[in-house]
């Protein structure tokens, strides 16, 4: 679902009025009533966020808003602008944002009631919230292709649930052992996980809403920042997770080389407490139609451009295996990526090893970089693998000289402050050599798979000819 143009976004701030009396019944003298299953206000939880609070965060024309995040990353091809509210909820209500109250408990409480579980409770809450938006917005007019379905590229919807977002909130460990039920303040114990959810809600005019993003209204650092919403909304457009999905804790490999903060879809959404999410990885920027690629068919010198130069593109460098190629891009520490890594490096060139054979099987299952062993099968190599400096374990000879990198990273949730390639007197800083890096599962250097007739000595060497900057030349040699 590649968006062809900027899309309207509807933000829904959702409150849970368990007994349906229209009043927030939270009583500081009796917080236990919200958490007692036999209480009529079990699961009551009202939003603290107001539309004014989140307008600038999402739609502000200046600064680090989500509108500017997508505009910057896509070089002006795509962003989310406020959906028009046809029936305003009050005189000074801004565009693009609704406040909805539904007469049910918060889904993290609802799931504990008879007849519910996680899935049914989330489905019910999302359905009821979306349905409650119907009087305020003429959804049918957003069905641009007239197929009866309002898709997220025609109108995106994100629900900010009253309460905290689980992954970016430090819970109150004194309170409860259940992660979704120990939010940090007594009036807001119930939390949701940020997700992109399928739904099916019939709206006026014969159209259906089929997908929404869902997150909390707050995290540990205050009102919801844009990182997690930007990640979840990218899912709605077709982006996939770039962290280890479905890997049981006992099966985890320390340092499995996921992209970490080099992709919004890995850990990039948390950068700067979610205020400065990093860009999506180049593979998915191309996939989503946000960026162009140029193919380096011949060896020689090519120029890469940073995102903020306005001329960003990823350079695709084919290898001796038609399934595998390298994407080269410039990542400068500027704009939303000013906090891309810890420390004060300036950025530079990042290489990515793409394996389409793996992606064909795993990308749409959101597991192209996962370390899981589906049905006990061996792990597979990453289909979208970072090739960076200073972050992989180093294999040295007896004199202490680096000879190659091992398969895993030396750190779990981060990458080195200066993982970039750029012109330098130190050849290790200027030269990417595919024979230094191996597949995380196969342990195979240069290529994950060597087709028949291709020498195991085959490698790609790329020298970066410029210091970090808006334009960086690279020299490609294969053989
Ligand atoms: Zn995700």
Written description of the protein model:
- By secondary structure, this protein is an alpha/beta fold.
- The protein folds into two domains: 7-238, no CATH class; 260-478, no CATH class.
- The protein is 13% helix and 26% strand.
- Strands 1, 2, 3, 4, 5, 6, 7, 8 and 9 form a nine-stranded mixed β-sheet that branches.
- The longest helix has 15 residues, at 118-132.
- The chain is globular and about 75 Å long.
- Zinc ion binds next to helix 5.
Give the topology, please.
Layout: E1 7-16, H1 51-59, H2 66-73, E2 80-82, E3 97-102, H3 107-110, H4 118-132, E4 149-150, E5 156-165, E6 191-192, E7 195-203, E8 207-219, E9 222-223, H5 227-236, H6 282-287, E10 292-295, E11 300-305, E12 313-318, E13 324-332, E14 347-355, H7 356-362, E15 384-387, E16 392-396, E17 402-409, H8 427-430, E18 431-433, E19 460-464, E20 471-478
Parallel strand pairs: 1-2, 1-3, 1-5, 4-8, 5-6, 5-8, 10-12
Antiparallel strand pairs: 7-8, 8-9, 11-20, 12-13, 13-14, 14-15, 16-17, 18-19, 19-20
The protein binds zinc ion.
Residues 231, 235, 241 line the site of zinc ion.
